[in-house]
Amino acid sequence: MEQEINFVKLNPTQNMTILVETTHPTKAHKDIATRIMSYDSVYAEQVGFIEEPINYKADAHLQMAGGEFCGNACMALAAFITSKQELKHNHVKKILLEVSGTDSLVECEVRRVEDEYYCQITMPIPKEIKQTIISHVGNKLDVTLVDYGEFVHIVMNINDINERVKEEAQSLAKSLSLTLNVSLIGILLYNQDSNELEPLIYIPHLDSMVWERGCGSGTASLGSYLAWKNKKRTITHVKQPGGIITAVANYQEGKLISLKIEGFVGIVAQGKAFITV
Predict the structure, then answer these.
(1) Which CATH superfamily is domain 2-123+265-276 in?
(2) How many CB atoms lie within 10 A of CB 207?
(3) Is the pLDDT of residue 154 over 80?
(4) In this predicted model, what pLDDT tens digit does every residue of 53-84 receive, in sequence order?
(5) Going by C-beta distance under 8 Å and a sequence separation of 6 or more, which residues neighbour residue 18?
(6) Predicted pLDDT of residue 182
(7) Cβ atoms of 119 and 263 closer than 8 Å
(8) Global pTM?
């Protein structure tokens, strides 16, 4: 059966994101997302669905296809909403979003910069950050676990990020999905000398594994980890394959008290997709 899907495609630091404007039942999200983000369709790394919010304070509800939370998709939706309001260059708009994967409203500040949008958004604060040892295929890995409850990120300090290391990261993500009941597992390969990040995002519900060119939630987790490690407020400009995303993590009296990320979003395309599901 062919369906007509209204969509907009956005570019938050090359983490190509499709937002679906038409309304569809939640049970159909997985199939629609799998089809529309494939190479022979619109093609992207992730899909979110724009819905009516329950909270009257929110401007929209963002439901990710896998039920996960996604910082870049939040920035993308905030930019898209702002684009409809014909904001002038350098003017700022504030947007509030309901988002899957978190119970808190996400605050977004969007500034128009020529034909792009510079977004700063509040991010969920991790429930726990800890050093731990993970046993995987006979190896004991010394990693940092950034745990949000509904999703987790694993920070791995790696000096040489090569194909063998990436394959091991993919295997680790799959393995962790068998024991962790979470909507998303991120493996963050981090070179602390160059401040470079290679983020792997695995969504078990969709069986979607992507080396993202820019990861907002991964950047937030890295900022959290660095603030926790250094026991102080940290601003870090994280280099990723698609560009730079900035994390601002406030740390006081032994804990994180706020977390934000910042980055550019461009609108790439808007129209109709025809998919068979």
Answers:
(1) Diaminopimelate Epimerase; Chain A, domain 1 (3.10.310.10)
(2) 12
(3) yes
(4) 999 999 999 999 999 999 999 999 999 999 99
(5) 7, 8, 9, 10, 33, 36, 37, 42, 44, 46, 47, 48
(6) 94
(7) yes
(8) 0.92
